[in-house]
Amino acid sequence: MSDFKCSVCDRSFDSERGLKIHFSQMHSEEEEKEASKQPDNEQDENSSILVLGVRQAVTLSFIFGLVTGLLIGTMLFMISGVGLESPLSSGDDDESESDIETISGMPYDANIGTGSENVEWNGETVELEDRPYLGDDDAPITMVSYEDFFCPFCTGFHNEDFAAANNMNSAFNDIVENHIETGEVQYYYKNLPVAGGDMPAEASECMLDHGSPEAFWDFNYEHFDNFEELQQIVETDPSEYNDIMVSWADQLDADEDAFSSCIENSETQERVSNHVDEADSLGASATPSVFINGELIEGAQPYSAFEAVIEEQ
Question: 9, 83, 156, 292: most buried by Cβ count inside 10 Å?
């Protein structure tokens, strides 16, 4: 039986001496070393494969966890509705809302008073007693304008920026500067809501009743100055419009509770209706309709049309 085997070629020998003689004649020392390393190399290779497999498994596990976390975070974000604020969103909206709710007051340097007597024009009575006016109480010319706070042409008449943006005539500021502030004209405003301006018409009268003539004219200026925003609010949420008006009343030193009750209960509706009937009896059929000592200038006319009649009067 052979007990000795060559590690290089697997040949068997009966004695150790025979194996040694064979190895010295047939094989070199380098072959023996190479043969002796073979099992270790195979073991190293197997170990490398095992290590590589573990690393891949760890990497895949990390990636899976990361993706899962991102998906869960996105779902929670969508459910809660909480996210980063858009740079174009609330900052501008808050500023816009603040502009509407904050009263700056009219810029006119004109006397403010209330009428002491009515006038007769073309056989019709124009009620001016206790009505607020701009101008001197002894001015030789009386102007009465019937307007709608939500009429775009009335807005253009008062608001130069709006008129310029919409290719309209704007005359009121020139009338104030050249005729009201100089003592020539006493100017009254009355309501003729034909374009949906019933709410501001009633609110303006509530401001007069529970505030002052100054509060009335500040309201008048601010409302035309914020025409577009306020009209949109009335169309979408009338209660928000009322809240803004109450805020104005507070800033204008009106009785806030009484004013709020006034607009909520339409306490001045009948007075506004009387203004409409009066305008109709005078022949006013559009807004603005401006009477200068009884002579009618109807529609959005340029300042020159008013100037000519004032100078003639």
Answer: 156
In a domain, 145, yes or no: yes
Pairwise CA distance, residues 241 & 173, whole Å: 27
In angstroms, the CA 119 to CA 102 distance is 37
Give the separation between CA 287 and CA 298, rounded to whole angstroms.
Answer: 7
Q: How many CA atoms lie within 13 A of 205 on its CB side?
A: 24
Encode pLDDT of 76-135 as tens digits: 445 444 333 333 333 344 444 447 888 888 999 999 999 999 999 989 999 999 999 999
Residue with token string 């603005």? 288
Coil, helix or strand at residue 297: strand
Same domain for 148 and 18? no
Is residue 5 situated within a structural domain? no
Q: Are residues 163 and 205 in the same domain?
A: yes
Distance of CA 79 to the CA centre of its chain: 25
Structural contact between residues 186 and 133, judged by C-beta atoms closer than 8 angstroms: yes
H or E segment at 132?
strand 132-134
266: number of Cβ within 10 Å: 13
Number of domains in the chain: 2
Query: Which H helix or E strand runs over 70?
Result: helix 29-80
Taking the mean position of all CA atoms in its chain, how far away is CA 100?
11
Range of the domain at 17: 13-80
pTM of the model: 0.69
Pairwise CA distance, residues 175 & 173, whole Å: 5
